[in-house]
Write a structure and sequence with these properties.
This protein has helices spanning 20-30, 53-63; strands at residues 4-14, 34-39, 45-52, 71-80, 93-96. By secondary structure, it is an alpha+beta fold.
Length: 97
């Protein structure tokens, strides 16, 4: 059984208006991860992701570069404890508006 990890990310820099949410969603889905991505009012992007630790870490590494037009200056990561009854990843990763 694969151990699951959950992380919340806050990505800063030029990350809005450059297809950051869409490409994050596509990358997360290709990795089989669950969660969401959302623009924040202050210009940053928030991500919550659930899946096998190594795949979550792969998405975090990608978040440092993002799509070609992005200029990422920081990726803050907060690892979260999973509840014992936490559901397995659904593979659904969505954009929140």
């Amino acid at each position: 059984m694969t151990k699951l990890s959950k992380a919340r990310l806050r990505i800063s820099g030029r990350v809005q208006g450059v297809f950051y949410r869409q490409t994050t969603r596509d990358n997360a889905r290709s990795l089989g991860l669950s969660g969401w991505v959302q623009n924040l009012e202050d210009g940053a992007v928030a991500v919550e992701v659930l899946g096998p630790r190594e795949r979550v870490e792969e998405l975090i590494r990608w978040c440092w570069s993002g799509p070609p037009a992005a200029k990422v200056t920081a990726v803050e990561v907060e690892w979260q404890e999973l509840d014992v009854d936490q559901a397995a990843p659904s593979g659904r990763f969505e954009i929140r508006y």
